[in-house]
Design a protein that fits this description.
11 helices, single chain, elongated, Helicase, Ruva Protein, domain 3, Rossmann fold, 280 residues, two-stranded antiparallel ribbon, 36% helix, alpha/beta
């Protein structure tokens, strides 16, 4: 492991502050600074960029983001045990690291935007999907956040980036495919973490893209919830739970009704969502 700055190795930091990862906080610490630097580079050139990081833990990715040239890092951390370790990083990078002690689920991320802004994080596994769906539902869209570079369990990463017809295609893929361009940048093996999780992880890079005005996220979520709620049934059957004339709903999306949800393109869900209020 090469050093990216003059701070002590992460294993020393963890031992000094007794930072054993807590399962209830979804913590798995990344100790390889080569790997954290690789994650930071997926986010693109960081000079002049404010980076928002969720769950920095002992600060391995934080250090990489700063070493890669981020103008400023706003690190959101609810585990008070890590604050002394993060304070050491702040001292080594004067004026460039701000630690927000709080719950990432309660943060108004729009208020943290200042010029070019990106979110880069090794997300806690227990809230990663919830955070992403919240970010993808931000209004207005596209948001003032330029991109999201996020670590997930590989299974979740596949669900984000799946295409119609793939086993992982579902509600999350429709939401992400509608509002962004998402790709899996690379996989991360279990051995990279302390403690090692039970599954492989992956880094996903997500870039918001323009969408039509006036189509609320909640309508798309209602259609996808109904369609994928009984995903092995034909959509003519699964869409009945919406309580509207199903044949009319199918017609606006040019569907026969014998398709299954995992076969439908994103545009079919959007067409049904547009028509939903008029059919009620």
């Amino acid at each position: 492991m090469s050093q990216i700055d003059q701070l002590p190795p992460l294993r020393e930091v963890i031992a000094r502050y007794d930072l054993r990862a807590k399962k209830e906080l979804g913590q798995n610490f990344l100790l390889d600074l080569n790997l954290t630097a690789r994650i930071a580079r997926v986010a693109g050139p960081l000079e002049g960029v404010r980076v928002i990081e969720v769950g920095p833990g002992p600060g391995g990715l934080t250090r990489a983001l700063l070493a890669e040239g981020a103008r400023e890092v706003i690190a959101i951390e609810r585990d008070a045990r890590t604050l002394p370790a993060l304070a050491e990083i702040a001292d080594a990078y004067p004026g460039r690291l701000t630690v927000v002690s709080g719950d990432a689920m309660q943060i108004d991320y729009a208020q943290l935007v200042d010029g070019p802004t990106r979110i880069v994080a090794n997300l806690p596994y227990n809230i990663g999907t919830q955070l992403l769906t919240g970010w993808l539902g931000m209004a207005p869209w596209p948001p003032a956040i330029d991109s999201f570079t996020l670590m997930f369990q590989r299974e979740v990463a596949e669900r984000i980036c799946a295409r119609p017809g793939e086993d992982a295609y579902g509600r999350l893929a429709v939401l992400a495919g509608w509002r962004s361009d998402a790709r899996i940048a690379f996989n991360v093996g279990r051995q990279a973490f302390v403690p090692p999780p039970k599954v492989t992880s992956a880094v996903v890079h997500i870039v918001p893209k323009p969408v039509e005005a006036g189509l609320p996220v909640k309508l798309v979520e209602q259609v996808t919830r109904a369609a994928f709620g009984q995903r092995r049934k034909m959509v003519r059957q699964s869409l009945k739970s919406l309580g509207v004339p199903v044949e009319a709903l199918l017609a606006v999306a040019d569907l026969a009704g014998d398709e299954r949800a995992e076969e439908l393109p994103v545009e079919a869900f959007l067409a049904m969502a547009r028509a939903l209020p008029g059919l009620r």
